[in-house]
Amino acid sequence: MPDKSEYKNPRILLIEDNKDEAFILIYYLNNHGYIVDWCDSPQNAIKTAYQQKYLLILLDIMLKKENDGFVLCQQFKADPVLEEIPIIMLTARSSRKDRISGLRLGADDYVTKPYSREEILARIEAVLRRKKNYDFHHKYQELLESSDDIVLFLNEQGQIEEVNRKAEILIPELNKTKNPIHLKDIFQEIHANSLSTMFERVLDGREASGKSWKLKNPNIPMKSVDVKFIPLHQGSHIISVGCILRDSSARENIVKTLEKRSKELREKVEHTSEKLQGVQQKLAISEKMAATGQLAAEVAHELRNPLNTINLSVYLLQKTVKSPAHKINEYFEIIKEEIKRAQKTIDRLLEFSKKSSQERRFTSINKTIKQTLFIVQEDLTISNIDVFQNLSSIKQCKVNIDEMKQVFLNLILNAKEAMPDGGNLYISTKMQNDGYVRIDITDTGHGIAKDDLEKIFDPFYTTSSKEATIGLGLSIVQSAIERNKGRITVESAKNEGTTFSIYLPTFDSTEAEETEF
Q1: Distance from C-alpha of 210 to C-alpha of 138, rounded to nearest angstrom
Q2: What is the rounded distance in angstroms from the CA atom of residue 346 to the CA atom of residue 462?
Q3: How would residue 5 be classed by pLDDT, with cut points 50, 70 and 90?
Q4: How far apart are CA 9 and CA 238, in angstroms?
Q5: What pLDDT does 468 receive?
Q6: 93, 89, 8, 18: which is closest to 55 by C-alpha?
Q7: How far is it, in rounded angstroms, from Cα 400 to Cα 438?
Q8: What is the distance between the alpha carbons of residues 27 and 134, in angstroms, rounded to a whole number?
Q9: What is the pLDDT of residues 136-182, one digit of tens each?
Q10: What is the rounded distance in angstroms from the CA atom of residue 84 to the CA atom of residue 5?
């Protein structure tokens, strides 16, 4: 790649009041690739220096006055814009005092007239090489100082000798002592062995690096850094070790965030998978219930005719047998009770298999509960069960009234069965903020074991010891509530009672406001 820098064709300012000497020097330097601007008086020298970017100034000491060159050199070096331009002073005076004066004023070199053209060319090249190296290192230093990385320069023992500005800000330990700090003193102890191994590798002339090292000081923003060690050579000798510390906290935060999101996604997938399994199970149960319902209907119809025949036969026998013995009447009563029990079972089978009407209309849930309680109140009283009602002012629900009556009846009768020695039955209603009406039916009975809670809504599952109970009540209840866009939950513990909670949606309509209990 061609050199496009200012050093390719360096521009020089020649300040010389001898016109002939100036033309000869300009001609010679132009032939060697230099661009030379000429100024013959100190009055215009500063102004001319501002007009172009000069890499070098050739300054004659003896201008209009004997010491004008020294004064002008001093002015250049006092100017913050021009002070970095190197100056080679030209003079016919060869005294040591003049050379010392010029160098003390900031001149970079001194050439005595008459000079050979080869000598002045060599001196110009030497000064420009130094200037180029200075500019390069100056830019390099600016780059280091503006870097967001911590840059450290270490000696062969691992002690920190020089640092950039970022290091001074983020590692306050460097400013607290004049004694050298060892690199291991700024890292946590867990990295000590790795540091020793890497440093030996660098001293052998190879680079080394480490990921996510923890700094010892917990109060600085960089909680962890990536470390890189670079051997710095002078010829074939390693004179120092460069160490770059780059903040890895952001990357670690991203990794932690990704891990967290990955975990959340995995949990969502697992949850979705569980829900899918639940849906599949419900579909299987739904198919099973449909088949079971059809079978129940067929069985019920097949049993009803023989039962009617038996019932009629008992009736005729009672009419035929005159003055039967007491024992015979007792047997008749047993037969009739068993027929009734069988008919109840058939009725429940038919109820389970029957497709309820889909008609739904706005209904007072409180009124429906009161109507249901009226039907069973005498039975509850006989069973020594006290009923406590807390029916709040609620909106009406659009439901199938007959299904809701069946739901409440089944749950109340289940509560009665759970309290064979009597107890308390609590029924309450209230509005929720989500627009649902909540109905709680709570008993103080024997409760439901934890293992049974997940199964109580399954068809034909029952915890009752009564022979007539075939386990269709809660399955019917759940199906009816779901058909009415609601849901049901249960809370119970053994010997601590049971609470069934029903949630039914309401509709914001003036005609649907609840106005009565």
Answers
A1: 29
A2: 17
A3: low
A4: 35
A5: 39
A6: 8
A7: 17
A8: 28
A9: 777 777 777 777 888 888 888 888 888 888 888 777 777 666 778 88
A10: 18
The CA–CA distances, whole Å, from 211 to 222, 253, 308 equal: 13, 14, 88
CA distance 369 to 517: 10
CB-neighbour burial class of residue 76 (10 A; exposed 0-12, middle 13-18, buried 19+): buried
Question: Residue 140, Cβ neighbours under 10 Å: how many?
Answer: 10
The tokens for 82 are 């021009």
Contact 7, 56 (CB under 8 A): no
pLDDT in tens, 483-508: 888 999 999 888 889 999 999 998 64
Q: For residue 37, give the nearest of 20, 56, 18 by alpha carbon.
A: 56
- Over the range 318-327, which residues count as b (16 or more CB within 10 Å of their CB) and which as e? eeeeeeeeee
What's the CA gap between 430 and 409, in Å, rounded? 19
According to DSSP, residue 180 is labeled P
Residue at token pair 């004066």: 101
d(CA 59, CA 53): 16
pTM of the shown model: 0.39
- Residue 116 binned pLDDT confidence (cut-offs 50, 70, 90): confident
| Rounded distance between C-alpha atoms, residue 69 and residue 60, angstroms | 6
457, 478 in Cβ contact below 8 A? Answer: yes
